[in-house]
Design brief:
169 residues, mainly alpha, 6 helices
């Protein structure tokens, strides 16, 4: 009779550990989503503050003839040098979606470069909208989150077995 009770207890313990691991996976999902969302928010906030600084605050503090021409020319040079060094970033929507359809993934290893490349034209006064640079960033973040969640889900069973062994010992 004792073995039957301990078997039931072990089964209950196993269920508890599985539920705990599922909750941990859900918490991990929330955390990854929050990180991705916060990064996009920070990018948009930096863009807003940078545009306010360059186009409102500085011209309000100093009076410089041809300010717009100077800023746009300097910005064009900076963007040109940046593209020469780091390549063709930010990628257009068609390019990003084409890579996703063709390769079934999007490389997010150059996320910092993509962020800078998305911000530069918008800060300097380009007429493109924020979606131009954010497309690659958001798609990259989605694949980053997806790959991390897939990894965690694949290893949930192993974590459960490790937890069970630890509880039984």
């Amino acid at each position: 009779m004792e073995k039957e009770i301990s078997g039931k207890e072990a089964l209950k313990e196993k269920r508890k550990i599985k539920i705990k691991n599922q909750l941990d996976l859900w918490l991990f999902c929330v955390l990854i989503g929050a990180v991705a969302g916060a990064l996009v928010w920070v990018i948009l906030k930096v863009m807003s503050l940078g545009m306010e600084l360059i186009w409102t605050w500085i011209p309000g503090k100093i009076s410089m003839p041809y300010y717009t021409l100077i800023v746009c020319t300097a910005g064009g040079v900076i963007i040109g040098v940046f593209r020469k060094i780091f390549g063709d970033y930010p990628e257009e929507l068609e390019t990003v979606m084409g890579k996703v359809k063709k390769e079934k993934r999007y490389d997010y290893s150059h996320m910092f470069i993509m962020i800078i490349a998305a911000l530069l034209p918008l800060l300097i006064g380009s007429s493109v909208g924020p979606e131009a640079g954010l497309t690659g960033i958001i798609v990259g973040l989605c694949y980053w989150a997806g790959e991390n969640l897939k990894f965690a889900k694949q290893h949930t069973r192993e974590y459960s077995q490790i937890g069970i062994c630890g509880e039984i010992s």
